[in-house]
């Protein structure tokens, strides 16, 4: 971010780039909170990439992260509501932003325009992502437009734990095919099927 001085009173303003509208905005430092490099550093770097994966159980609104097929982290989610369901199947985290501007909806009554969505880890080209949620705390039931809503703490954990790793001084990373695998199932039986597919593919590699 660039710092500018107000010519009227020399007070500082930060210039922030908005990727969605390709525009610059100015904000007072008092409205910002610094994030250190340590708070963005990758987690479990010693675990081989193919020994990490995430499972999302839509019927339980639950996310579980695994290392060596053992659960290491669990969080409640709020996934896609009726008519905007979170897609199921096998995907990867390939595109990340420490903060994102998201907008969309299905009409004027449900339009949303949210700047500063924290810790977005995208899993589809249609902008479905794990991300933090500051506008609700209603986890445990579907209510999003397809994304996997998490608390900011849980979203930051996913952002740090998954691949690709985003350098602290970089505001976006896009690496198709280089991410952590995510299995999204309607229920436990569906997840078991996706696990079997995953394991068959791993045995052939």
Topology:
Elements: E1 2-5, E2 12-18, E3 23-27, E4 52-57, E5 62-67, E6 70-76, E7 89-92, E8 95-104, E9 112-122, E10 129-132, E11 148-150, H1 152-161, E12 173-174, E13 181-185, H2 188-204
Parallel strand pairs: 4-13, 10-11
Antiparallel strand pairs: 1-2, 2-3, 4-5, 5-6, 7-13, 8-9, 8-12, 9-10
Describe the model.
This protein is mostly beta strands and 205 residues long. The protein is 13% helix and 36% strand. The protein is built from two helices and 13 strands. The chain has helices at 152-161, 188-204, and strands at 2-5, 12-18, 23-27, 52-57, 62-67, 70-76, 89-92, 95-104, 112-122, 129-132, 148-150, 173-174, 181-185. A hairpin with a 6-residue loop joins β9 (112-122) and β10. The radius of gyration is 18 Å and the shape is globular.
Could you name the key traits of this structure?
5-stranded mixed sheet, 2 helices, 205 residues, mainly beta, 13% helix, 36% strand
Q: Gap between N and C termini, in Å?
A: 43 Å
**Unreliable stretches covering 5 or more consecutive residues:** none
Number of beta-strand segments: 13
Main beta sheet, described? 5 strands, mixed
Strands side by side in the biggest sheet: 6-5-4-13-7
Question: In a few lines, what is going on in this structure?
Answer:
With 205 residues, the protein is mainly beta. The radius of gyration is 18 Å and the shape is globular.
